Amino acid sequence: MENPLLLFPQLNISASKDKSYYKVMKSTVKEESHQASKPGAKQKRNRLSLLLQKPEFHEVDQLGKPGNLTKAASVSPEEAVKWGESFEKLLSEKAGLDAFTKFLKTEFSEENIEFWIACEDYKKSKTTHELLPKARNIYKTFIEKDAPKEVNLDFQTKELTSQNIDQPLITTFDAAQNTVYRLMEQDSYPRFLRSEPYLNLVSGKNPSRPTLRRRSRSFTVNDFQGVRPDLTVW
């Protein structure tokens, strides 16, 4: 009997192809399985995109925008007008203190009002045991050299304050607090009263809406009839 491979050579070729195809498919499946076990670049991007959409990854801080010093709905124009009577009046009201604090953040000088608030809290201490940890914390945060929120104090005031840190009294920060208070009253407070957000509050305007808006380009042809185009505004 003749060799079947000679009679049907295609069988040998087919078998050879099947083996090659099996090897290729086996290699491909193995590679795909290996790739599936690892998150690809696209998967990583998708995961990162989902993470970035979570609220905790976005600190919604609009304090740097002048139009968000305070909510218009919470402050009446009459209240805002009273803030202009004196710096003391502004700080005595919570809404005024909050608005002024946010204003200072737009000027990157919020350490001044934060120091003043810390001193006010310090003076409310009821026992001497509360004074030492609070005094050290205030000193390390606002007064010592290269403190994270160092306030601008003259040498004499800083030295006087430093001498009482180990045995603090209720009056330990009085001199420093008064210095910072006068600085804000004479420098930052007048600018606050001239700021656009404060003037908007006084006039009853909604600070969340800009007073002027750029004209939209989505007009119809009829909107421009009889009007000469002024290309300079674009």
Structure description:
Keywords: Signal transduction inhibitor. This is RGS18 protein. With 234 residues, the protein is mostly helical. The protein has a domain of 127 residues: Regulator of G-protein Signalling 4, domain 2, CATH 1.10.167. Helix 4 crosses helix 11 and helix 7 crosses helix 10. The radius of gyration is 35 Å and the shape is elongated. It starts with a helix and ends in a 31-residue tail after the last helix.
Features:
single chain; 234 residues; mainly alpha; Regulator of G-protein Signalling 4, domain 2; 11 helices; disordered C terminus
- The fraction of residues assigned to DSSP E strands is under 5%
User: CATH superfamily membership of the domain at 77-203, which one?
Assistant: Regulator of G-protein Signalling 4, domain 2
- CATH class of the domain at 77-203, please? Mainly Alpha
Spatial gap, N to C terminus: 94 Å
Mean pLDDT over all positions: 73
Record field, number of beta strands: 0
Rg over C-alpha atoms, rounded to the nearest angstrom: 35 Å
Structural class: mainly alpha
Question: Which runs of at least 5 residues are low in confidence (pLDDT < 50)?
Answer: 4-26, 28-39, 48-67, 207-234
Protein name: RGS18 protein
GO biological process, one term: negative regulation of signal transduction
Domain RGS: 86-202
Keywords: Signal transduction inhibitor
Briefly summarize what is shown.
The protein contains 11 helices and no strands.
Present the secondary structure layout.
Blueprint (H helix, E strand, L loop, with lengths): L3 H4 L1 H29 L3 H12 L24 H7 L3 H6 L1 H13 L4 H12 L5 H16 L11 H9 L10 H21 L1 H8 L31
Helix pairs in contact: 4-11, 7-8, 7-10
